[in-house]
Amino acid sequence: MKLRFSRAGWSLLATGSLAILIGLAAAHISPAQEAGQQPAGAQKNWKDRGEYDLDVKIRQTQDPKERLQLLDTWQDKYPQSDYNDERLQFYVITLSQLAPSDPSSRPKLMDKANALLKVDPKDFRAMYAIALWGPAVGGNSAQPDLVSQVQTAAQGVIDNAPTAFDPAKKPPTVTQQDFDKAKNGALAIAHNGLAWSYVQKKDSANAEKEYQASLEANPDQGTTSAAYAKTLYDDKKMPEALFEYARAAEYAGPGPALPPATRTQLQDFFNKAYEGYHGGKDGADQVLSQAKTSALPPSGFSIVSANASAQAEADKMNQRIQSDPGFKMWYAVKQSLVDKGDTFFNSDVKDVEIPGGAEGVKYFKGTVVSLDPATDPTKVVVGVENPTAGDATLTFSKPLPADALNTVKVGNQIEFSGVAESFTANPYMLTFKDPSINGVQTAAPAKKGTRGRRH
Fold this sequence. Notes:
It is a single chain. The chain is of the alpha+beta class. Among the domains are: 8-218, Alpha Horseshoe (Serine Threonine Protein Phosphatase 5, Tetratricopeptide repeat), CATH 1.25.40; 341-437, CATH 2.40.50. 55% of the residues lie in helices and 9% in strands. The protein is built from 17 helices and 7 strands. The protein has helices at 8-13, 15-28, 49-60, 64-77, 84-98, 105-119, 124-138, 144-164, 176-200, 204-217, 222-234, 238-250, 260-278, 284-293, 306-323, 325-340, 342-349, and strands at residues 353-354, 364-372, 379-383, 392-395, 413-425, 428-433, 436-437. The protein has a 5-stranded mixed β-barrel. Helix 2 crosses helix 9 (176-200) and helix 7 (124-138) packs antiparallel against helix 8 (144-164). The longest helix is centred in the middle third of the chain and has 25 residues, at 176-200. The chain is rod-shaped.
């Protein structure tokens, strides 16, 4: 199953970080100067009054679309400006505001952010913009240079986050909690960018590490959980992948979640994949419940595969066969009857007392499953292989006496031997007529046949 997720989910996640970064940028960009004057400590001049007026208007314009038009006018009229650095910063801020709802602005944002990094290799807003929007621009088959740009920028965000979010830089209108949340959001975006770059390089191991780091920084990311799930699924790490699919399907906020239709699609995929892997639906609700409140699986989390369950059952069966000679014979008879049917029954079982002392085994052991009727029974169903599912029926010509029911009662284990009268292969049942029960005196004499043979 192929699922594609819009980068818009990540953009919503970045809103808090972006707003604070823009606030920091506004404080960082030098204020407009009077025409013809130099900013203090810098050899910069406006070309003329027109350039100065553009700068003032740009700062006063709140609508990013209108501000972008003004920036383009500034760029066209004054391509060689002393204030090119500030113009690039305004471009990055403005295009970052437009990028979530205007995909056409994203390539231009990449260009301006890269140009700004050539001027200032540590400009945090430019690195952040590339880490956030580079994967959306590149898609699933990005050019190597863009992958490299995203990887470098994302690592730059991680390395420079302590400086960019230094407590001294916190705007007075922003709470410390929101400031810390914005920092974690920026780190989450950076780790997502690194994960995407590793996916492009087909390095799933490092991609998984980065997705995990992103969710550790900010758990409220439905899109990241889905992307992480797909990477794990492709790498055949099924328990972890199923948990992340469950997370992406179950997560509904408070942070940005996937659209309801996508979550429903993921829920359906999880249900089918879980049942296919585990061999049943049991335990799926527990995984969904855990994923609803946690972005990552708890320590020691696992889902047993159907193959592992089957192997465990096979190992248990082999151990029982090796340790219980009576069950070994019972199981051998059953397998031969199921495989060969009436031919084997007529030649090796009919009119033969089994186990009858063959290979030193005098009795089969089984657990009483039911009595029919409940009082004065003439039929006893016994579970030899499974104590709760009958596979042997003991029928008697006369009802069992009352004192026999002290031993022959539901839930008790009994030992029996006798001549099989008939069998069915599916569901498997071997029926004995008037068998003997160890330690029990039945009303009818046990039916005798030839001595048991080796099977």
